[in-house]
Amino acid sequence: MTAFTLIASFRAKPNHGHQLVAALMRMVEPSQAEPGCLGYRPMVDPQRPDEAICIEKWQSEAALQAHFRTAHFAEVKAVLDEILAQPFGLERLVAVDQEANAQSAPPTSKEHTVQTLTPAGISHADHLAIRVPDYDQTLAFYSDILGFKLTREWTLDGAFLGVRFAYMALGEFHIEVIGDELATPADPTADVVDHLSRPGYTHLCLRVPDLDATVESLKRMNVDFLAEPFEVEAIGQRLAMIRDNSGYVVELAQSIA
Q1: 24 neighbors 49 (Cβ within 8 angstroms)
Q2: Is there a single domain that holds both residue 168 and residue 214?
Q3: Where are the alpha helices (DSSP H) in the chain?
Q4: Backbone dihedral angles phi then psi of residue 221, each to the nearest 5 degrees
Q5: In this structure, are 158 and 210 located in the same domain?
Q6: Which of 215, 246, 227, 49 is nearest to 129 (CA)?
Q7: What is the dihedral of CA 108, 112, 118, 120, to 10 degrees?
Q8: Which residue, 41, 36, 12, is CA-closest to 24?
């Protein structure tokens, strides 16, 4: 796999920024000594003292996965689990020329990219909407627990008077939250078999680099689990399932190396 840059983003609980920076700095020397690490540099914005990012460069995905298994990562991760306001975010980036070479095509600017459409004229999936009985609690769950960012809120007149709408983003993916007190709570699912026996859209899937670490973090935040981690060899995935504040199922997935 092509070398890539990883942007890890962190938001600490109020007044825990100094502990966040100290924890990240402890990672620098041992991480840079790893054979697959090409760079590791924490950075902060003085205007946001409780936030930080770490700009990392890895030789391959296997090198990154090996990093997640090191003793120094586990030690610092335990500290972060105590001081972070939400799970840290990871964003993978590759240089434009690398991506172009991988596609056997010259690099193009975003303004001149040719958009590929399906035969029906569709360009890409945009968002998934969920109707919830507790709008504010749902925004809090998806932002504070899962790391989504609130990007827009609005209301409508007429038949939708009193209904509140929001877009929340995780990378390029969005969910639309639609909420008022009249929405009917979801019927709770008993187990995975019950969940997958129901018709219609059944769950939202979020990808994670370290399923066990994510599960530990969510349990510390008292998130309700529908299914503990399990493997599906047919698709090369380790999965777990949680329930959000409304009882909707969110799947967590990690690729099996």
Answers
A1: no
A2: no
A3: 17-32, 61-68, 71-83, 96-102, 135-140, 192-196, 211-220
A4: -95, 10
A5: no
A6: 246
A7: 180
A8: 41
DSSP 8: E
Distance CA 150, CA 229 (A): 29
Quote the CA–CA distance of 44 and 46 in Å, as a whole number: 6
171 with 215, same domain: the answer is no
Which range marks the domain in which residue 14 is found?
A: 4-98
Sheet arrangement for strand 173-179: 127-132, 173-179, 164-170, 149-155
Per-residue pLDDT of the chain (257 residues; tens, 9 = 90+): 578 898 999 999 989 999 999 999 999 999 999 999 999 999 998 888 899 999 999 998 888 888 989 999 999 999 998 998 887 888 888 777 655 454 444 444 334 344 566 765 676 778 899 999 899 999 999 999 999 999 889 888 777 778 899 999 988 889 999 988 677 777 778 888 888 887 778 899 999 888 999 999 999 999 999 999 999 988 889 999 999 999 999 999 998 86
- What does the block give as tokens for 198? 């129901």
- Give the other-Cβ count within 10 Å of 203's Cβ: 17
**Spatial distance between the Cα atoms of 50 and 194, rounded to a whole number of angstroms:** 42
